[in-house]
Design a protein that fits this description.
With 405 residues, this protein is mainly alpha-helical. Helix 9 packs antiparallel against helix 12. The longest helix is centred in the last third of the chain and has 31 residues. This is Deoxyguanosinetriphosphate triphosphohydrolase-like protein. InterPro entries: dGTPase (IPR006261), Diverse_Catalytic_Enzymes (IPR051094), dNTPase_2 (IPR023023), HD/PDEase_dom (IPR003607), HD_domain (IPR006674), PHydrolase_assoc_dom (IPR026875).
Length: 405
């Protein structure tokens, strides 16, 4: 049967001139024929969802360890929430929704078990070998470590998806090639030597909305989870005038509302306010810069999808609230210390005896690796672990495993 591609709805959404056009993609490192039923960016999104790395996000920490309860966000639920916000922003700005969603879905692939705690511990152990960066690890996963295809390693995403993954938070180099905010992680430089991702420019609008969606999502759901855990209270939210105003609005409209509904009413108002702020700022920036292509967005010299100064201050206040009451809460710090110990112990054990990683692809030819190669190999293995797997593996290898409750 022959498929009539013109009847599939491709191109029905009128993309803005500054959006990434899937039919004018810079392509993939390994050329592939187009799909008859999906655009290149739709294929990227679908490939991301079907990876092992995506499934592992279900058992990786966002803020609270999985043992704390089933209703707290994990990396997976966080990622889905980011993708939803990114897609909403993309639609409002007439961008390619599939590319924005794909960048959002892949942005946390490289996170270790136990969230940023695990990343910090692994970065310290890898200090002599170029360090560890979760963004660079995400790139390694989708270009090397996922092994799903007969003809290439990785999942062979489009240039635009990889660019968005690497640069969604902004350029990595200045015009002279010097790293911005520190050296560019070596895995990113190594890949760009084969497939130049334009490290000195900003990313596409699609990647920019994915990045700001990440801020919107975790600012909101960390408050929700904080209230659920008891680390935050409504009185503490009064420290941020914006949140105090939302609570006053909800109480005034719905007096005596039960706690769970009250929290949800606050959260959805917060998301709406932040999303609408970003849309307004992006529209104004787009009118000012007037880019006529995605490349003109990249060369604009500024992030176009961002908060207004007033909302940026609210964002700063919310982060300060979360940092003080949750991220640096003494009880959380004890758990973080134990989680860091687990990652550190496992790294040392695998360096001393690589065969502990098992008789599978991770240990093939392990005895021939140089120290730096072995360390990166161990980092790949550790970063791929879920919280549960890391914890249970530590219990098998050591007499004492820290209590993460």
């Amino acid at each position: 049967m022959t498929i009539d591609k013109s009847a599939l709805g491709f191109g029905d959404v009128a993309l803005a001139p500054y959006a990434c056009n899937p039919w004018k993609s810079r392509g993939r490192l390994y050329p592939e024929p187009d799909s008859l039923t999906r655009s290149p960016f739709q294929r990227d999104r679908d490939r991301i969802i079907h990876t092992t790395a995506f499934r592992r996000l279900k058992h990786k920490t966002q803020v609270f360890i999985a043992n704390d309860g089933d209703h707290y966000r994990t990396r997976l639920t966080h990622t889905i929430e980011v993708a939803q916000v990114a897609r909403s922003l993309a639609r409002a700005l007439r961008l390619d929704e599939d590319l924005a969603e794909g960048v959002a879905l892949v942005h946390d692939f490289g996170h270790t078990p136990f969230g940023h705690t695990g990343e910090d511990a692994l970065h310290e152990k890898m200090a002599a070998y170029g360090g560890f960066d979760h963004n660079a690890q995400s790139l390694r996963i989708v270009t090397k470590l996922e092994r799903r295809y007969a003809e290439f390693d990785g999942i062979n995403l489009t240039w635009e998806a990889l660019e968005g993954l690497v640069k969604h938070n902004g350029p990595l180099q200045d015009a002279e090639g010097k790293g911005i905010g520190g050296p560019v992680p070596q895995p990113i430089l190594d890949y760009c030597a084969r497939h130049d991702l334009w490290l000195s420019t900003h990313a596409s609008m699609e990647a920019q909305v994915a990045a700001i969606a990440d801020d919107i999502a975790y600012n909101t759901h960390d408050i929700d989870d904080g209230l659920r855990s008891g680390y935050l209270s409504y009185d503490m939210l009064e420290e941020v005038p914006f949140l105090a105003g939302l609570m006053y609005e909800v109480r005034d409209r719905y007096p005596g509302l039960e706690s769970s509904r009250f929290t949800n009413e606050i959260m959805r108002r917060q998301i709406t306010a932040m999303v609408e702020d970003v849309i307004g700022v992006a529209q104004e920036n787009l009118r000012t810069v007037a880019p006529q292509s995605a490349d003109e967005v990249r060369r604009a010299g500024m992030t176009l999808a961002t908060f207004s100064p007033a909302m940026a201050e609210i964002d700063r206040q919310i982060k300060k609230l979360l940092f003080h009451h949750i991220y640096r809460n003494p009880n959380i710090m004890v758990i973080r210390k134990g989680a860091a110990q687990i990652v550190t112990d496992l790294f040392d054990a695998y360096i001393d005896d690589p065969k502990l990683m098992g008789e599978h692809s991770w240990s093939e030819g392990i005895e021939r690796l140089e120290p730096a190669q072995l360390a990166r190999h161990v980092a790949d293995y550790l970063a791929g672990m879920t919280d549960t797997y890391a914890y249970n593996t530590h219990r098998q290898l050591f007499d004492h495993t820290p209590d993460l409750r």
